[in-house]
Amino acid sequence: MYKVMFPQLIAGPIVRYREVYNEIARRSPDVAEIYFGLRQFVIGLAQKVLIANVVAVPADQIFALKPDELGTATAWLGIACYALQIYFDFAGYSNMAIGMGRMMGFHYPENFNRPYAAVSITDFWRRWHMTLSRWFRDYVYVPLGGNRRGPVRMYVNMMIVFLLCGVWHGANWTFIVWGAWHGVFLVIERLGVGPVIERAWWPLRHGYTLAVVMIGWVFFRTDTLTHAGGFLRSMFGVGGQSLQYPVERYATPTVMTALVVGVFLATLPAKEVIWRTARGTAAPVVANAVLLFLLALSMLSIAGGAYNPFIYYRF
Predict the structure, then answer these.
(1) 206 included as an active-site residue
(2) pLDDT of 261 higher than 80
């Protein structure tokens, strides 16, 4: 029963048996639980349909171009769209899975905590795909010795974990480089740079984290290291600047709206801001009205759009 638990079966969150075994025999899916589950399901559906699916279109189109056809602005738009696509697609799936489980009386662990609000790579991995990070910590990092065998062995263990994390996503050199890229920065922060980063001005810390993460996403998204290198050269203006595919071709009003909303939701405590704005007795009414609106908008988008599978089905 645990192995075929369908809400989170394909992509996560990674649910361990001990987290749900007590609820198999003793569940109480009352009206409140069903409501909270339905709310989280609708939020996940909106993340997938209204943001991830929209920014996926320019991301796929831009990454399909040859590097010598890319201008700097177009390349940055492509990686920005992909960064939001993979987050809202996977976070949307996780929220839908958690919501479905909640409606049936199961309490799955949260999987994302606004990772693009992180102020270091260490902080990012405390927020991104949290159940996977805990899985690697408990089943790989700790059995290898963790931090109990001196600093050198700890750094080696960290690199092993992130190289395996790359292989986890696919048997391709691009995934291995992506894992090594994050592992190197985690080791650098542990070597003494972390306290320096913590004392830096917040926008600098945030900018550093986003830059490292987005460069890493280039390797994650491309199929070959050659393609990744060419895309990175275009991002940083090295080489020719093609005007064949200008950024205006992809930055449509719909895409830019999804980008702005996505950045706001991904980096700011949006739920708290919205709740405080709708404070008072009308808050539940406003929240429910917003949920119904998002559900209706998502259903209309699904009915009028093409099939767009979850991105993590590929890995």
Answers:
(1) no
(2) yes
Overall average pLDDT of the 203-211 stretch: 94
Indicate if the alpha-carbon torsion angle 62, 167, 262, 123 is positive or negative.
Answer: negative
Chain length of the chain: 315
More confident residue, 240 or 181: 181
Sorting pLDDT into bands at 50, 70 and 90, what band is 281? very low
Among 169, 182, 206, 227, the active-site one is 169
Position 70 confidence tier, pLDDT thresholds 50, 70, 90: confident
pLDDT at residue 313, rounded to an integer: 66
Alpha helices in the chain (DSSP H): 17-25, 31-46, 53-63, 72-103, 121-127, 130-136, 151-169, 173-188, 194-199, 202-221, 225-235, 253-267, 270-277, 283-304
Backbone region of residue 272 per phi and psi (left: phi > 0; alpha: psi in -120 to 50; beta: other values):
alpha
pLDDT tens track for 229-248: 999 999 998 866 667 788 88
What torsion do the CA atoms of 145, 148, 151, 154 make, to the nearest 10 degrees? 20
Q: In this structure, what token pair is assigned to residue 142?
A: 């700790």
In the chain, the amino acid numbered 204 is L
Amino acid, single-letter form, for residue 259: L
Whole-number Å distance between alpha carbons of 222 and 6: 30
- Count Cα neighbours of 269 within 13 Å in the Cβ-side half-sphere: 5
Please calculate the CA angle 181-187-192 and round it to the nearest 5 degrees. Answer: 135
Give me the residue spans of the domains in the chain. Answer: 1-18+30-110+238-315, 113-224
